[in-house]
Amino acid sequence: MMTTSIHRILATITAFCALSTALGAQESIMVMEAYSGKVLVASNAGAKRPIASLTKIATGAVAVDWATATGTDIGSLQITVPQMVTMVGGPNPMNLQPGDRISMRDALYSALLGSDNLAALTIADHVGREIVRRRGKNNDPVAEFVGEMNRLAKALGMTQTRFANPHGLERSGANAYSTAADVARLSVYAMRRNAFNFIVRQKDRQIRVHGVTGERSYNIKNSNELVGEPGVLGVKTGTTAAAGPCVSVCMERDPMVRTKPDGTKGATPRRLIVVVLNSPDRFNRARGLIRQGWEVYDPWLAAGAPFQDKRREFITVPNPS
After folding, report:
1. Nearest-angstrom CA–CA distance, 223 and 234
2. What tens digit of pLDDT does each residue of 183-192 get?
3. b vs e for 7-24, b when ≥16 Cβ sit within 10 Å of the residue's Cβ?
4. pLDDT band, very low/low/confident/very high, at 255 (cuts 50, 70, 90)
5. How far apart, in whole angstroms, are the C-alpha atoms of residue 168 and residue 56?
6. Alpha-helical segments (H) within 265-308
7. How far apart are CA 49 and CA 52, in angstroms?
């Protein structure tokens, strides 16, 4: 009898592990129209999971917002690579070393196009130091910057998101997560920022680093394979073992011109946000979802944009100061 009980326990544990593995293997998707907030396609969109370097969308948005608020020219501002970058892994396309100098704009190019974790940390360190100084605090600058990322998430209604660092690498005990729906919110917000929008739509960029041996030049290529395809404006890729392959894509079409009831014509702008988390074929999956999204959106708009439950059918993305 004891043996039977043990077998049952083991069978239960095995079944639970299989279920956990299956859930972990599921993809999460969200497709929405950015101007109206209309949700077009969603699957597992509220499941909390790691999002890898999609985290850098928040890093870039906070950095651009800080530059705008302080009147800082990101092209002329030179920032210093901190010593702590030696503790960060992942891609280092510019071979950044502590003490190197780089413009804030080039650091954003490397972080957002090349998914450079060291560049993301350098951005967070500089902006965090400036925030700490202006607030008269003595806090860790990177922690202060991550605090701003989480405050932005809260302001955008990203209730299922927590950022633990500016680059998205998983760390023991960090407990960082988001959802496809929350990443869509963040992507809508970030793509409203002209500087961010301009950066992520580049297929590649030549950037410069000033080190102890002189100036170095690198060509950073965009990791988002969809950039360059008609209408695609960005946004970001990410991949880790825990998160799987992820991508957020923004695509824009010419405004839809319609005749109003009074006989006048009106133009409605159209922009899709497509988020795919944990998909082994993320780029083709995103392409298919873009087509599917337009197939849902255009007839809906042509029919007068009807809805039954606004809270369920739309995502509102505020524009907090």
Report:
1. 10
2. 999 999 999 9
3. eeeeeeeeeeeeeeeeee
4. confident
5. 7
6. 282-302
7. 9
Round to whole Å and give the CA distance between 224 and 54. 11
Could you write out the DSSP letters of every residue in 114-155? S--HHHHHHHHHHHHHHHHHHHT----HHHHHHHHHHHHHHH
Radius of gyration, CA atoms only, the chain: 22
Could you tell me which of 238, 305, 223, 313 has the C-alpha nearest to residue 276? 238
pLDDT of 78 above 90: yes
Q: Is the dihedral of CA 239, 151, 41, 24 positive or negative?
A: positive
Locate 282 and state its tokens. Answer: 């993320």
Identify the structural domains of the chain with CATH numbers, from first to last.
28-313 (3.40.710.10)
Name the DSSP letter for residue 308: S
Range name among 157-166, 195-204, 229-238, 252-261 with the lowest pLDDT average: 252-261
Pairing mode, if any, of strands 28-33 and 232-240?
A: unpaired
